[in-house]
Sequence to fold (282 residues):
Amino acid sequence: MGRFLSDYFQRFGTDAYSYQTVLIELLLIGAAVYAVLRFLRGTRGAGLIKGLGVLILALFVVVDVMASRFGWERIEFLYNKFIWALLFTVLIVFQPELRRGLMRLGETRWLRRWVGDVEQVLDELVASVRYLSARKIGAIVAVEREVPLGFLVESGTAIDAQVSANLLNTIFWPGSALHDMGVVIRQGRIAAAGCQFPLAEGERFPSELGSRHRAALGLSLETDAIVIVVSEETGTISLAERGTLTRSLTPETLREQLRAGLGTGRDVLRRSAPKPAVGEAA
Fold:
């Protein structure tokens, strides 16, 4: 095995493997991998793609290289079939991420800008949360950051209106047609209401966690969105970010975390998430 690797590296510098060609190839591969990891950062797919990369690397070294070296034809045959099966598995496992990626290409995100003044949006949003919390009216609002939430907007009722505390209060008022689902804010506007957020599942979340809080955690696991939750039972304000739920926020602390998380309104200020505190009913 050592001699095989030594012969392989000795090929560098020859006409078949010039240093310039290898360098360009490595740069292109690195750029592609970085783009994929950057897109999946903050989602469940990030951990999956890392594990998949380790698996493929181990299989290549142990199976492909060794099988070619020692003539293990049967193992090489099974390895090729396994790679094809793994490809189909990736298409199934990463279906949400692939769907968002295609939507992201169609949105020409590099031309997008946050519409409106960030502070004005925060003023209206915090004012609505204060009003809903004082009256124990349940609410859940997702603020889009880098990962597009177009798939959520499609599942709800399109609004495309300026962020207004009165409008948010009306949407979440008990008895309204849209009060049970979530609201999506993108580019400084209320994009849609009545959106169904994905629920978090697994043993890491207490069974007594309410549906709104589980939905907030579920969305924060799949995207990098900031999700605000107001408990219908206690009026407690919570914030979910990157799979972490922070409870018992005041309107002032909520504003601070939103301002830090949104940065300039277009870029994301990456910071360490606070320690999670979960266990409240929605």
Q: What stands out?
A: Confidence is low (pLDDT under 50) at residues 107-116, 264-281. The first strand starts at residue 139 and ends at 143.
